Amino acid sequence: MSGREKGYVGAVDQGTTSSRFVIFDRRGEIAALAQREHRQYYPRPGWVEHDPVEIRDRTFDVVREALGRSGIRAGDLAAIGVTNQRETTVVWNPGTGEPYYPAIVWQDTRTDDICRRLAGGEGADRYRARVGLPLATYFSGPKIKWILDNVSGVRSAAERGEAVFGNIDTWLIWWLTGGPGRGVHVTDVTNASRTMLMNLETLAWDPEMIEAMTVYPGMLPAIRSSSEVYGYSDPDGVFGERVAVSGDLGDQQAALFGQTCFEPGEAKNTYGTGCFMLLNTGPDKVDSRHGLLTTLGYRIGDRPPVYALEGSVAMAGSLVQWFRDNLGLVAASSEIEALARTVEDNGGLYFVPAFTGLFAPHWRSDARGLIIGLTHYIGRGHLARAVLEATAFQTREVFEAMAADSGIGLKSLKVDGGMVANDLLMQFQADLLGIPVIRPKVAETTVLGAAYAAGFAVGFWRDPDELSANWRADRSWEPAMPEARRAELFRAWQKAVQRSYGWLDD
Predict the structure, then answer these.
(1) What is the pTM of this model?
(2) CA separation for the pair 15, 449 (Å, rounded)
């Protein structure tokens, strides 16, 4: 039976806090979904780790749950896609499948000294023209170097060909296709573009960057497109069937694809653990002059690659989780909106969530979190409101940098992610940007993008127009704030951000 004749496509969405498996029908609607969280480890200040074996096991668990609850057989799936938390780094033994060290998460800042040394006198932009990225703790390359330099025996294992690297997409695809002795060791251009090791022009591993990071070429996965058949699921594994594994996109690029932003100038913003705005810039890469990242948007088969500009914000939904878990001011994340609505505005309070420094457009690893504007007037509601508004203010900063770099003035913004259910935040975002904010009917656009890429590779969907036809708006928020008030709030936010700088000494 061909891919076109089967009824469904499945996709793994392995995120920072949980793993999901979602099954979609041809209309892009959800037929089944299962989700499980995994633990977060904070062994030292600024360090963030995951257990890659737990991530693998939770992924297998949600595959079984989604198939079992829905009654859909693995044989009914035309293909499987994978999307993942990007930059999170795993190094493992390909003979045994055992990781040499916990996964170092994208939020982790332990590689700050490595990045400073690599920058030397040329600064953080030393390699930007080559890889599109500043030297920052965010990316995978410095994390691989840290493991090689600091975990006993790993460098010698890499020299013997007994250590391989992957972001989480590579780790999961390797296991899905058979693991030790059989697993396919691949990544796609979007994930490779987040390592600081791929040349943006050639879409190949860059020898100069490999040397700078002291990484061994044999550790690195093969770079493939975002939509092609990489291999097949192990019939003895979790699916129990031979199903094409044929889609791979980093989570933010997957959301761009799932939002069907196929034309240059179309953009989306995802409100998840962090907040990530991507703008499709077409077949030509745009070098940022305003603190954004030049990255791969996606590549379909052997078609020309599509580039994107990205603004990455480290703390968005994770700030709400911190407000819930560390302060205990709400019992559930969903309660923050009601608490924020108990006040009319932020009361002059601003919260800069630089818990691990600031990402775009600042790239300041020396910044730390700041609450400013406290008076006797301030209460719980104002703090809740400041937590939500921090995400919108950070998005406004990225929005302005994107317009300056691209010369494109966006007329609207497509949004997705868990926080788009918060009406107060979405209205404030529209007010702060001065453009409509639009939520799609299927808000699970990240995992949908991975499913689209996988299905496209096997002919389940044949044309991008089919995917665009699936996209439907659910709700739109129109700006209602006077321009003078918008400017006043943003000026105050910028003052607060400046005060967060320089907290850590060199």
Answers:
(1) 0.85
(2) 14
How, if at all, do strands 8-14 and 437-440 pair?
A: unpaired
User: What DSSP element (H or E) covers 354?
Assistant: none
Handedness of CA 138, 141, 146, 151 (dihedral sign): positive
372 closest CA partner among 476, 498, 506: 498
Q: How confident is the model at residue 506 (pLDDT cuts 50, 70, 90)?
A: low
Phi, psi of 366, deg, nearest 5: -85, -5
Q: What is the H or E stretch that residue 470 is in?
A: helix 464-470
CA 431/CA 413 separation, integer angstroms: 12
Question: Alpha carbon of 412 to those of 35, 269, 295: distances in Å?
Answer: 31, 11, 22
56-57-59-60 Cα dihedral, nearest 10 degrees: 120
The stretch 319-343 carries a mean pLDDT of 94
The residue whose two tokens read 């293909």 is 79
Q: Are 88 and 105 in contact (CB under 8 A)?
A: yes
Mapped to the 3 state alphabet, what secondary structure does 50-111 carry?
ECHHHHHHHHHHHHHHHHHHHCCCHHHEEEEEEEECCCCEEEECCCCCCECCCEECCCCCCC
Q: How far apart are CA 81 and CA 59, in angstroms?
A: 13
Helices then strands (H, E): number in the chain?
A: 16, 21
Percent of the residues in the chain that have a pLDDT greater than 90, as a whole number: 77
In Å, how far from its chain's centre is CA 401?
Answer: 19
- Using alpha carbons, list the distances in angstroms from residue 345 to 273, 377, 384, 478, 485: 24, 12, 10, 18, 12
DSSP 394-454: HHHHHHHHHHHHH----S-EEEESGGGG-HHHHHHHHHHHTS-EEEESS--HHHHHHHHHH
Give me the mean pLDDT over the 418-447 stretch.
92
Q: Which of 339, 426, 423, 467 is nearest to 29 (CA)?
A: 467
Find how far residue 238's CA is from the centre of its chain: 25
Tens of pLDDT along 356-406? 889 889 988 889 999 999 999 999 999 999 999 999 999 999 999 999 998
At 93 the pLDDT is 97
